[in-house]
UniProtKB/TrEMBL annotation:
Residues 398-423 are annotated as: Disordered. InterPro entries: DUF222 (IPR003870), HNH_nuc (IPR003615). It comes from the Bacteria. This is DUF222 domain-containing protein. CDD domains: HNHc (cd00085). It holds the Pfam family DUF222. It comes from Actinomadura rudentiformis. Residues 316-369 form the HNH nuclease domain.
Amino acid sequence: MDSIVDLSSASTAQLVEAAAAIAAQLVQRPAPESGAACMELAEELATAIDQTECVLAGLIAVVDRTGEMKHWGFASTQAWLRCRMGMREGRAKERITLARQLPRLERVSQQMATGALPYGYAATIADAVHRLGDADCATAEDILLKAANEGLSAGKVARLGNKIHDLVTERNGDDGPPEDVRRGYERSWLAVSRSLDGGCYVKGWLNPEDTALLDGTLAPLAKPAGSDDRRDLAERTAAALTTVLSGGHRNTRITVIARLDTLTGDDQPGWLRDGTPIPAAQVRRLALTAGVSPLILGPDHEPLYLGHAVRIASHGQRRVLETMYESCAVQGCEVPGLLCEVDHVDGWALGNSPTDIDKLALCCGWHNRWKHTHPDQMQITKTDGLYRYRALPPEGIARSRRGRLGRSPDPAANPWHDDHLAA
């Protein structure tokens, strides 16, 4: 008898444990010396990985639909994937799109589950149809799936998907911005075309220098406003551009950080928020320049005390905190400090935290509210004068993170280990 385990009767959790145990054993095995054998094994393993990607998409879909990640201190499904699984933003977004679109892509889901359709094609098709209605989605699925099965590359399938979207848009009466193929790439350019309803289309190209200026100005303003912000990146970028055009960004400041001794003649340099050193003599000159704000630190590298016991932090306190906190104090949250709220570390409502500079931190709006409603799930530490928050799992739930913590599962404790699978 080859096996005493009936895999068809195993639970999902048991099968995941089995897959984890097999992966732990695989990484300890050296690759065969034969190149031909490695090609065959790599292709077979890639197919298995594509099938597990289908399973992963199903799991992510349930987490996304139920909002379970919010109980763990994550503002969104994307934040959960980035922080707990180490995914880059683009990879997380790709998996979320696939998870949300697979229920509408029956044939793609079936072929992916059997290993007949690689993950790359499935993700490309999901991205191509996510802006289409259900009827157009079904038609597009047939066309794109046929193209994939006929051997077109994923890139060509993506371009075909864009063409389908353009045709649907044209059919619905939205002509879109005119194509401009006559311009080169030596100089930046923007083309603005008016629409009949008073709006306009903007199309163009920016050289690397202008792109850096655009990113530096718009990127911080285009971050999600919180868990309820359903806008995509394009919509948030448009809102950020509107903010800049209306002058809402004019509170941008340059902050020079320096020790008190530096201002009184010492040679210790100062620095900007990004760590750029500033010579002591230049610091003293900048301290007298209009529009540049010096932040004076005491001998222990601690900001001088600026606070007093009132509910709302002062303008000066906020400027100090924005200098100290580049982003939200919660581990893994990337909302810029400039867009965060001032948080009373020990909780103002409890009467434990006065509005003193050494009792304040910057926290994004979503995590500020989450911290207030889940005080037992927030671990707070202080290092080098900065508070760091870490969201903890709900009470009573222990999560196994064997692979991420570098611990291999105990074969003797695993009912799915090879010793139990073979007779």
